[in-house]
Amino acid sequence: MKEFGQLLESLLAEKSSRIGQLEISASAGGFVVCHRDDVGRDDVTPREIEDVFEIAKFDNSGNYRPLKTAPNLRHGWKIFANNSAELQQAVNAIYPGRLAVLHAFESGKLVTTSLRETLSRQSGMYRVAARISDQQLDDLVGNFCRSDGGCLRTILWKRDDKGTLPSTQLPSEKFDPAHDQTGRNEKCIPLLCQEACNLLVAACREKVKEGAAPSAP
Ligand code: SF4
Hints:
By secondary structure, the chain is of the alpha/beta class. The protein has 2 domains: 2-96, Gyrase A, domain 2 (2-Layer Sandwich), CATH 3.30.1360; 115-211, 2-Layer Sandwich (Alpha-Beta Plaits). It has helices spanning 2-14, 52-57, 84-94, 98-106, 115-120, 134-144, 198-211, and strands spanning 18-19, 22-27, 30-35, 45-47, 77-81, 154-155, 192-193. The strands form 2 sheets. A 5-stranded mixed sheet has the order 1-2-3-5-4, covered by helices on one side. A hairpin with a 2-residue loop joins β1 and β2 (22-27). The chain is globular. Bound molecules: iron/sulfur cluster. The site of iron/sulfur cluster has 12 residues, from α7. Residues 69, 144-145, 150-151, 153, 155, 193, 196-197, 199-200 line the site of iron/sulfur cluster.
């Protein structure tokens, strides 16, 4: 666990104080974490570190956020983290698993899985998802994973074992960890996607089911 905190601190010192929609600033021997859009606002509500899961759960309108890397993190709060362990706790709650994936990436040990392989591993009601066509995948991923309104992760996986791009409808920046997926063109720590999430797999299943012939009465 300690090495994640060290990684984060070194990234903050060397690269940036932003990850996804979060702004992290050093303050009074610790760190202040808030929404990037809220920097400079003096009307945000101070919250406790224990509140961070609840902050990540709902958007500005109180709607549940099934995808934690969707670009709809709620505004209007700030959290003081006393040390790098608490900072890690806050970032992990808002972006689960992303620090571990980043650490593996920075160490050259990250393993990615193609979308076709992820789909072929599904069982039960999700097994049918593997029947999705390449054209359907191109359209679906282009819409579902787009940074503008979909997901802020940088895609590292390929569509298949031939190295096909996940979607021709996504800009090349979607696959570039150096690019700020929020569109603000600021230096930031990337949120990496090493394999398709459950939500995309479920969307593939739905797409296949939409095209399936209705069963006989
Ligand atoms: S597959 Fe990755 S990039 Fe696409 S929506 Fe899921 S987490 Fe985001």
